[in-house]
Amino acid sequence: MVIRTLAFLAVIVSILIEVESDDGLNLECRASGIFVSITNKFLLDNGVDVRFSNQIHFRNNANCSSVKTDAGYDLLIPAPFDTCGTKLEHDTGNYIYTNEIVIYPIDDVSDGGEIVERGLNRIPIQCSYDDSYVVSSDFGLKPYVRTIYFETAKGNISVDMNLYQRKDYHPKSKLGARPMVLVSFPLYVSVNMDNIFGDDKITTTLEQCYATDKASFKDMDSLLHYLVQGRCISPDDTTVEIYQNGVANEARFKFDMFRWRMSKTEFVYLHCEVKVCDSNKESCTGDGPQCNGPNGDSSRKRRNVGFDVEESGITSIGPIAVGRLEGDGEAKVDTELVGVKRDQEFLAIYIYLAVGIVLLLFIIILTCTLVVKRSRQLKSQQREDEPKQANVGRSNSETSSDSFNQNQLPICF
Fold this sequence. Notes:
The protein is of the alpha+beta class and about 425 residues long. It is about 25% helix and about 35% strand.
């Protein structure tokens, strides 16, 4: 029994430590695009049945599906990598693009043709590019910053705009003149008022912000893209997030860098219409979470001009150069399907658990067997010892009686 149990455990362990390698998944990070190829052998080795190209696509972007080839399936994210749900992060010295490929097995297609995520397998991909390879066109434009001044009875108030690379608006992340920014990279905008009065009820309110290809905010006849409208997020840009607007002396919002479509222009000017607002006497914020962040106060107040300043002014900054990559990046991809790998991990856990239970039961049974066997041996030995003890007792009794008779004095009559 022990030998058979050990043989079974050896088979289980051999299954667990068996590892297969496969080179059928390839990721290339080039300046022109991110290329992924998945071979039929890779899918077959991982037990995934793919018959149609739309079974493989980028996560939450079914329109970015694969193209079938003789060897398997190919996927592409063209430069500047702003499609198919690709995310961009910037760490020390590198721009990192991440995405995720999903593969739906054929049995996950329902009768109505819809795909469900019951058997979803995923392949995370990552491309890292050195930021020293980021370049832009030399269009010879000088940096332009427009600071506005509001005249009041108490003095002048200045308002200017600055751009940052980080959400916390750390001073070290402040961008300099004529910054060069990759498409999809988040830009954090700060419109700051120099509040000389020290009154926290005097706030900076962004009425609207928009991007053009002209330094003059009045020139809106050519390229125009709204970011903030009516103190709230513009429906033209889903990447905009307003952090605060009309609640402090600084207004903040974020948008992802873009490029002009159907145009060769590779730079952007940003303009914001600003109002210095007295929140004691008028409404300084928009209505709703899309106007002043998720925790903003959207209560309405009577709109009266209570602070003696001009209605609004325009502050501008630019040009912001649209950067592009030159040179290949470093690829990182897991050659094991996440879904399959997770299933294997669960299977390994179940097998180890089963082996542990079998071992525990084996130990318990063996212990009980030994205890029962020992108990039977003790009982058998006790039965064998009982007659011997009885015989010894009778023998001792007779011996003591004879001894007594021999030692007894003769009786004289």
